[in-house]
Write the structure tokens for this entry.
Amino acid sequence: MSSESKLVVELWDYFRDLIGSNKRVEAATHLLRLFEEYGIDVQSTEIEGECEYLDEAIMALSDIDDEDDDDDYGFDEGD
């Protein structure tokens, strides 16, 4: 596992128990989105399987990316 992936997992492990269980997926998604903004590939297979909340967050981010890709193939609103 790369040092970046280890950092993501270790930070999440620390903060996970401080977050209510009903907010963990949302918090994990936000955390992973922040790491992505700084150029860390959080959707790599290195992180998958480390935590169920991170796995759900990865799936949520990939769904968002898929929706963004679908928008790129649409027509302009003015057409």
